[in-house]
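Tip: read the tokens left to right.
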């Protein structure tokens, strides 16, 4: 009975071997694979032919570490299964790879201690930048990373962290507009459906909506019964709509919350939307346009967010504004009365 023997792993081809085959110096090989470096056409042709024959590939990581740039961009993300986060991560990976970056995605699963550990890992890999999509890492940890030379860009989070850069949405303006939309639709008993997540973006929406309602003299009932998801929205509907003074206008801090709320309202309480109840969401995830929801919501500009980040990754931090604010867009559908 014959035994299968695994082949020994083939050693990687070195630049010295390429130089030897091409009959040039080691430095000529290095210059050939360095953008903008001076090398004659004849030498370049010899080096490229030898590299092709030997199967040589430049070790960009080693070169980058020597130059104090690894080409790595880390994405810190939680709740990757949600449509909004999945779309944001997918957009980021495509765009950053297009500009030659190696993208490392660290999934924190929503736990604060996991977010902290993931952010520390980026220091070990000497990432050029870390983009924090999750709202989890404490300011003290982010400050530690910045002190160690890490470039940190935070999405939808604005707080006084010296050295960090921020890309934020106009959460306040959108939440105020949501209140105005419901008021114009004739709603007088409002509800705010949020979650226990307490992320900076959700908190900003909550505060702005409550402030606008108070300005217009409208009462608001607030529900935060669990994490930011479909089930929490459905539970909020069961709680709010069972009351004698149930709301006639609802602002949900995310679309997923709105979906759960709408399904429970229509199926369990036999309510018609928007005739009996107006609902506004936030995010404009793809499902918001499905015929079963047709949700009026606010669209976050995913492409603009990532394009901006891709544009500043390699720029001198001194030349980049500390904060970039991007507007959100109203998407009118069928869940608010004209």
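Filled-in amino acids:
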């Amino acid at each position: 009975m014959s035994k299968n023997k695994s082949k020994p792993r083939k050693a990687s081809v070195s630049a010295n071997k390429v130089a030897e085959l091409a009959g040039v110096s080691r430095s000529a090989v290095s210059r050939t694979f360095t953008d903008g470096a001076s090398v004659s056409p004849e030498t370049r042709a010899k080096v490229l032919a030898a590299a092709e024959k030997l199967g040589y590939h430049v070790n960009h990581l080693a070169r980058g570490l020597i130059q104090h740039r690894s080409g790595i961009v880390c994405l810190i993300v939680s709740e990757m299964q949600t449509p909004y986060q999945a779309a944001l991560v997918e957009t980021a990976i495509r765009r950053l790879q297009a500009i030659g970056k190696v993208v490392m995605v660290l999934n924190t699963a929503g736990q604060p201690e996991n977010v902290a550990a993931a952010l520390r890992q980026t220091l070990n890999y000497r990432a050029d930048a870390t983009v924090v999509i999750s709202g989890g890492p404490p300011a003290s940890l982010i400050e530690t990373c910045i002190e160690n030379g890490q470039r940190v860009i935070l999405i939808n989070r604005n707080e006084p962290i010296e050295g960090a850069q921020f890309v934020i949405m106009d959460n306040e303006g959108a939440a105020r507009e949501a209140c105005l939309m419901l008021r114009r639709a004739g709603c007088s008993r409002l509800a705010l459906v949020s979650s226990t997540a307490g992320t900076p973006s959700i908190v900003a929406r909550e505060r702005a909506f409550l402030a606008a309602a108070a300005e217009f003299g409208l009462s608001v009932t607030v529900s935060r019964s669990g994490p930011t998801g479909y089930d929490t929205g459905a539970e909020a509907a069961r709680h709010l709509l069972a009351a004698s003074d149930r709301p006639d206008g609802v602002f949900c801090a995310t679309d997923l919350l709105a979906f759960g709320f709408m399904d429970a309202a229509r199926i369990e309480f036999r309510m018609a939307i928007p005739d009996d109840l107006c609902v506004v969401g936030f995010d404009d995830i793809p499902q918001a346009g499905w015929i079963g929801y047709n949700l009026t919501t606010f669209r976050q500009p995913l492409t603009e967010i990532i394009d901006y980040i891709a544009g500043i990754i390699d720029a001198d931090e001194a030349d980049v504004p500390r904060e970039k604010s991007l507007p959100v867009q109203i998407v009118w559908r069928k869940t608010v009365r004209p």
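Residues 72-169+302-326 form a domain with the Rossmann fold fold (CATH 3.40.50.2300). Confidence is low (pLDDT under 50) at residues 6-10, 60-67.
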